[in-house]
Amino acid sequence: MYIVYAHFGSQIPKYLLRNISNIAENIPNYSVVLLSDQSKSRKLNPSVQYMMVKHDLIWGQIQEKLGHPKDFRKNFWFTSLIRLYELGKFATASNLKLIHIESDVILSNDFPFDKFLSIDELLAFPVFNQTMGIASTLFINGKEGGKLLMEWCISAAMDNSKTTDMLILGDLFRNHESKIKILPSFVDLKTDSSFDIELNFHATKNLKQFGGIFDGLEIGQYIFGEDPRNNRGFSLLRNRNPYGFLQIEKAKFEFLNGRSFPYLSDMQGNLYPVFSMHLHSKNLALFEKNNSRIIAKYFNDLKLPQKKVLYPRTLINSIFAGIKRRAKFLFL
After folding, report:
1. CA nearest neighbour of 238 among 227, 226, 246
2. pTM for the structure as a whole
3. pLDDT band at 256; cut points 50, 70, 90
4. Are strands 97-101 and 2-7 parallel, antiparallel or unpaired?
């Protein structure tokens, strides 16, 4: 089984290089791969298999169809979607199981890689809400799983110019429920919505299978802060994403058994280990090998009010990007 990271459209960031290096050193039993259309970084861990991706005709067809702003974070919406296409393409060609981990997702030392080997479904991922899945942790079951994902990306982009990677995964679950396994990312969902109840049934069932939580979006975003690129260099801590399932502000976390990652408690007091956390803030200190102290500090601050944190370099980059956009329009 492969552990696969993917990055397209811009220079490979430092946090990804640190993250993938940690995984490559700590997970010797699996091949770690980086897919990218960028030049290979000299700082890439030598044990990581680097695979240069060449743009095929599908890239141009999808980019032409999508209606998202291309100047947003170097064509973010397109590169996020094309990532799913390339992951499907890679799984189809290799015909091997793979787990894709998003670049800003960190994993616990006891991440249950082996449990993914027993998945029979073609794809597995967390859900974010009624309409969206999320590829923070995405399992693809060889050729058949890759083919389903690849073909769905193409058809979705052709049919809907506003589609995204998250909408594609949500549509896949609704249209191919028997072929999709939901990775548990929350506990104790209370709702009157029939669709939410159905999702909760799947997630609860799979919670027992995996024995823990895979953060889709909400834990890491709430605890460690939002992406500062979305707010001119400022990251807001302890701000719940209103569109997700997990009422994160009510969640109870505990640190036990020497784990650097917490356990999440349900309403009955059952504890489930958190296996992954999605770090939208891209704080480089959180991607260090010895990050247990800084992780604990963020969780110790959970009871404090919301807080804005400034990332100076992100602010400077945002200012220059704004100047560049204005200059471009002035000279049109």
Report:
1. 226
2. 0.93
3. very high
4. parallel
Residue 84 contacts residue 135 (beta carbons within 8 Å): yes
CB 152 within 8 A of CB 140: no
Report residue 118 as tokens.
């027993």
Q: Could you list the residue range(s) of the whole structural domain that residue 143 is in?
A: 2-330
CATH number at residue 287: 3.90.550
264 is written with which tokens? 């999440």
Average pLDDT (229-254) is 87
Rounded Cα distance, 83 and 74, in Å: 14
Token output for 58: 């599908």
Token pair belonging to 185: 């990312």
Q: Is the pLDDT of residue 218 over 70?
A: yes
Report the relative pairing of strands 105-107 and 271-278 from DSSP bridges. Answer: antiparallel
Tell me what the mean pLDDT of segment 252-262 comes to: 94
Looking at this protein, which amino acid is placed at residue 142?
G
Q: What is the DSSP letter of 301?
A: T
Total domain count, the chain? 1
